[in-house]
Amino acid sequence: MRIRPLDSLKRHMLKCINDLSIDMFSFKDECFLSRPLGWLREFAEWYGNEIKKPFLINTRPETINEDIVVLLKKMSPLVQIGIGVESGSQKILPEVLNRKMSIEKIKEVFVLLHKHNIRTVVPFMIGLPYETRVDIF
Q1: 114 in Cβ contact with 80 (< 8 Å)
Q2: Which of 43, 48, 52, 115 maximizes the CB count within 10 A of its CB?
């Protein structure tokens, strides 16, 4: 994983706002919240104080907890989080996708985000190896 230095990202974002009149940011990082906590804290503080533009991120459910949601709220206005779940089958997640999180934990993440009024979008893959019709539903 490569992490762009924070000062470089700040300069680039400010240039986009000033030169291109950017109204919203969509961070095209497949797991934005997997960055080190110190980096996330500093970025959230800066973004919430200086940028204050709507934004979208993508992440995985295991990167979300109450503390992370508090950080995201500092960056407000968060438009939505795309959460890579990929399958609702407890068999397919660990055996095919190498996902170590249980369906119950994934549901808890969505309850937490709903509690904080954070909109989510969830991509699912259908037709995975060894997946049955029951697994899909």
Answers
A1: no
A2: 43
Amino acid letter, 134:
V
Cα of 5 vs its chain's centroid, Å = 19
CB 82 within 8 A of CB 59: yes
The residue assigned the tokens 């990929």 is 86
SS3 55: strand
Phi first, then psi, for residue 99 (nearest 5°) are -95, 130
Give the span between the Cα atoms of 17 and 35, in whole angstroms. 24
DSSP single-letter state for residue 61:
G
Helix spans in the chain (H): 6-20, 37-46, 66-74, 92-95, 103-115, 133-136
Upstream peptide bond of 77 is cis (omega within 30 degrees of 0)? yes
2: Cα within 13 Å, side-chain hemisphere: 2
pLDDT tens, position by position, 13-56: 999 999 999 999 998 888 999 988 999 999 999 999 999 999 99
Pairing label, strands 25-26, 120-121 = unpaired
Tokens of 105: 């934990």
